[in-house]
């Protein structure tokens, strides 16, 4: 299958409804009001139910149960709402994919997005934009499994035989997950900075307008892959001190504890969203 033929099938993928696109745009603004957000959330039953469940969870629960969306938004706060909205909308666009373990895919994706967003302050980036871009960073792989599952299995076999993932994708499809992810981000009308970071996550220096964002996602992905193999805090701090992306972004070795705090939360988020 040629690149053009595969990209022409993008319209077969679920589209984000206009109200959800408006919600995504709203939560990535600095100045949205809780009342405005509550009104938009009320238009989507699934998101409303997830927010109420979050507000009444053991982590957030107060003395009284909450049944009102506005009160739920106030209780959990803007950061948690932004995370919930971004992850739920993007995850919900791919409800069923037969050839991919969605729970594992989203657990890894959310883990990378959460690491990046928690390090965003030192990198002088907006944590909400970072999280949303992190959730999208490997969406092209999901697209391959959704659009051409038979070819996805062939690609998996070639990777198991030693080929690099992007090379295997290009050999079978004439395109790769990165290019497809950028096309989907364009179709879903995400900002230029997000598209630039997705396109250049493997080579942040090539990014035109989002070098720091691409660099942070590159770092977060590396951290996610190796963090649990390290023995102690000293080794983790040395890893950050020696990683060129951390140095370029000004992320100090002392931030290792932040990564430790959120390990496992990506899996929990994937479980919560997929079981709703």
Describe this structure in words.
It is built from 18 helices and no strands. α2 packs antiparallel against α6 (78-92), α7 (102-119) packs across α14 and α8 crosses α13 (192-199). It is an all-alpha fold and 276 residues long. It has 2 domains: 3-14 and 97-274, Orthogonal Bundle (Hypothetical protein af1432), CATH 1.10.3210; 17-92, no CATH class.
Which fold name fills CATH's third level, the topology of the largest domain? Hypothetical protein af1432
Q: Major β-sheet, in short?
A: none
Annotated CATH architecture of the largest domain: Orthogonal Bundle
Which residues form runs of ≥5 with pLDDT under 50? none
Share of residues in strands: under 5%
Structural class: mainly alpha
Spell the H/E element sequence: HHHHHHHHHHHHHHHHHH
Question: What can be said about this structure in brief?
Answer:
It is built from 18 helices and no strands.
